[in-house]
Amino acid sequence: MIGRLTGKILEKIPPQLLLEVNGVGYEVEAPLSTFFNLPEVGTDISLRMHMIVREDAQLLYGFYSEAERSLFRALIKINGIGAKVALAILSGMQPEEFAICVESRDISSLTRIPGIGKKTAERLLVEIKDKLTDIISTSASLTKTSETGITIHNHSGDAVHALVALGYKTADAEKMVKKAYSAELSTEEIIRTALKSTTR
């Protein structure tokens, strides 16, 4: 299994990036929380990996911090929470924010995430609570780097694409982006603002 990859970023189109390692290009899916910390295309980066092997595919998921990967691994073990929904959760909130959501039993914030209904949210709150201590203790040691943004020409269009890839309906994604859009904002900042508006 692949646990870590270090290489050059060739492409990044949220939620996917192409990472070149020793001449091999690896397609990696990552939560937007990881994208917010990525350097520019052409820069070397080291990401923690989680690999899922299926009959029809071998999928790689990359994470900037161990806390993100630990939370992802805990989430996909819960019935009804697949990798796509787990990425959507991590894209909408940091691990410590998720912990607060669980501790306060904030079902309304969870059900705003695509793929999570009320029953799934209730089951999630019960099943993951005991696992949060280890995840958040890992998060406490997280070292954050400066955010460089995602350099894409069509900021609003790519923001919509990223939200749709996370499971939001196109019409909803367009509304979220329209509300968050500003000419001064990068794609990263538009996505961040749009996601924050759904979890308030």
Question: Any chance you could write out the topology, listing elements then pairs?
Answer:
Layout: E1 4-13, E2 16-21, E3 24-29, H1 32-35, E4 44-53, E5 58-63, H2 66-75, H3 83-92, H4 95-103, H5 107-111, H6 118-128, H7 132-139, H8 155-165, H9 170-180, H10 187-198
Antiparallel strand pairs: 1-2, 1-4, 2-3, 4-5
Brief overview:
It contains 10 helices and 5 strands. With 200 residues, it is of the alpha+beta class.
Keywords, please?
single chain, 200 residues, alpha+beta, OB fold (Dihydrolipoamide Acetyltransferase, E2P), DNA polymerase, domain 1, Helicase, Ruva Protein, domain 3, five-stranded antiparallel beta sheet
Number of domains: 3
How much of the sequence lies in strands comes to 15-25%
Mean pLDDT: 82
Distance between the termini: 38 Å
CATH topology group of the largest domain: DNA polymerase, domain 1
Overview of this structure, please?
It is a single chain. The protein folds into three domains: 4-63, Nucleic acid-binding proteins (OB fold (Dihydrolipoamide Acetyltransferase, E2P), Beta Barrel); 66-139, 5' to 3' exonuclease, C-terminal subdomain (DNA polymerase, domain 1); 155-198, Ubiquitin-associated (UBA) domain (Helicase, Ruva Protein, domain 3, Orthogonal Bundle), CATH 1.10.8.10. Helix content is 46%, strand content 19%. It has helices at residues 32-35, 66-75, 83-92, 95-103, 107-111, 118-128, 132-139, 155-165, 170-180, 187-198; strands spanning 4-13, 16-21, 24-29, 44-53, 58-63. The chain has a five-stranded antiparallel beta sheet. Helix 8 (155-165) packs across helix 10 and helix 9 crosses helix 10 (187-198). The longest helix is centred in the last third of the chain and has 12 residues, at 187-198. The model is unreliable at 138-153 (pLDDT under 50).
